[in-house]
Amino acid sequence: MGGTVEARRALVLVVDDQARLRRTARVLLEQHGFEVVEARHGGEALLACRRYNPALVLLDLEMPAIDGWTFLRIVENAGFDTPVIIVAATEHGSPAESSCVVDVIPKPYDADVLIEAIRRALRE
């Protein structure tokens, strides 16, 4: 890369078992200049983290197979340090239980609130 400055769009991993919600998040994030990768559950999210090394993860908690809290325990044990924003209708447990979690946004979310939370997390 040398002295060249390259504008790279931040890659956000959206993890939710509901296709409609993933699609809505994708459209919103892409409109705001982010690249997006989707995962339907924690298992797919683990693979996506290894493959894409996202800058941030938007994580639902209630999903089949591997849920959000299990995903967090696995990635923390593996030394994962990418920030995670929980986007969920209900919260089981506390964000303080996870060092990766930087914010919690309730569903349904306000688009401006979500975008600001993402930008804040990426600046920190």
Task: Describe the protein.
The chain is α/β, with parallel strands linked by helices and 124 residues long. The protein is built from 4 helices and 5 strands, in the order E-H-E-H-E-H-E-E-H. A 5-stranded parallel β-sheet has the order 2-1-3-4-5, sandwiched between helices. Helix 2 runs parallel beside helix 3. The two termini are 23 Å apart.
Q: Alpha-carbon distance between the termini?
A: 23 Å
Instruction: Tell me the Rg in angstroms.
Output: 14 Å
Which structural class do you get from the secondary structure elements? Answer: alpha/beta
Beta-strand percent range: 15-25%
How many strands in all? 5
As residue ranges, the low-confidence spans are: 1-7
Q: Oligomeric status of the shown chains?
A: single chain
Q: Indicate the mean pLDDT.
A: 87
Compute the number of helices. Answer: 4
Overall outline: globular
Widest sheet, order of strands: 2-1-3-4-5
Helical content stands at 25-40%
Features:
124 residues, alpha/beta, five-stranded parallel beta sheet, 4 helices, 38% helix
Summarize the structure.
The protein has helices at residues 19-31, 42-52, 68-77, 111-123, and strands at residues 11-15, 35-39, 56-59, 84-88, 101-106. By secondary structure, it is an alpha/beta fold.
Indicate the topology:
Elements (H helix, E strand, L loop, with lengths): L10 E5 L3 H13 L3 E5 L2 H11 L3 E4 L8 H10 L6 E5 L12 E6 L4 H13 L1
Parallel strand pairs: 1-2, 1-3, 3-4, 4-5
Helix pairs in contact: 2-3
